[in-house]
Design brief:
It is a single chain. Strand 1 (about 5) and strand 2 form a beta hairpin. The strands form two sheets. A four-stranded parallel beta sheet has the order 3-4-5-6. It has a two-stranded antiparallel sheet with strand order 1-2. It is globular, with a radius of gyration of 16 Å. It has about 130 residues and is α/β, with parallel strands linked by helices. Helix content is about 30%, strand content about 15%.
Amino acid sequence: MILKRSRPYAAITTEAEAVDALTTLQPGLLIVVSPLEEGDAISLCRRARQQQPKLRILLFLDPQDTGSAVQEIDALVDAVLHPLDIGHEEYPIMKGLMAILRDRRYRSPSLRQPQHGVTGPPPAPEQRSTEPS
């Protein structure tokens, strides 16, 4: 989402319009909500990354996107959120934004492990103490 002042804070909802706005406005943060009205959100992220390598990108993934789409976007975006996680106790929207501010990456909880039909790489193993408890 890039907010345009020519329309009182109207969201840009198509891939073509967003690519044009990226060139004109040179924002520091791009928020993409999939699906777009026209075009493809992952394609938009790819084009935005090519056009502005330092641009921070937060993607709200379409619930219909498959595990292969999740794998592809890891290299394109700084934070990816799944709609199933909105309201999750981990506060994924806040953590995604904080990760971006700290130059880190974030993946919302349901995208870290297979569930709800979404697959991704397995979660990192927990470190366990070797001392008996």
